[in-house]
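Thread: Newbie trying to understand structure tokens

Hi all, I'm a second-year student working on a class project, and my supervisor (Dr. K.) asked me to get a predicted structure for one chain before our next meeting. I've only ever worked with sequences, so writing a 3D structure as a token string is new to me. If someone could post the tokens and maybe explain what I'm looking at, I'd be very grateful. Here's the chain:
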Amino acid sequence: MRAERVSAQRIWIRRGRCRHCRRTHALLPSFLFACRLDVAQVIGTALDRAAAGIGARTIAQQLALPHTTVRDWWRRMRTRAPTLLASLLALATRLDPAPVALSTDGTPAVLEALWCAWQRTQRRPARRTPDQWAFWSLVSGGLALTAYTSPPLPAGP
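---
Reply by user tm_fold:
Sure, no problem. This is what the structure looks like when written as tokens:
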């Protein structure tokens, strides 16, 4: 079964000025990651399938994407895995101090930690939580899969 790719659409990315540094910043909607053309749901689906052991070419065919795109997402994820994992685990424990049990290690553990943090956010009262991939974009500021070298999640109390 092959998914049809949604036609490309242009969107307007608003800019906002920071009161402290007086610089303008792009205000990405939660369904996007910075420097990525596809929406977070598509990227997340591809990463989930890659973590399950499905090859990049197969995933690319299923999602009607170039295989190089899927391969590059997975490579970026593997490269950033230690930083992403640490950041997501820190977020999960800030949301709920209970220990986070991961059943795997390496890159798939990042997706488990994301799932755990997302679940803990959903359990909080009176919070409207977006889907898992939009949540990841929100908490990382859209920087989860960029070449950005600082931790993607802000340090908190």
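A couple of things are worth pointing out once you decode it. Residues 28 and 91 are 21 Å apart (CA to CA). Strands lie at 14-17, 24-27. Feel free to ask follow-ups in this thread.
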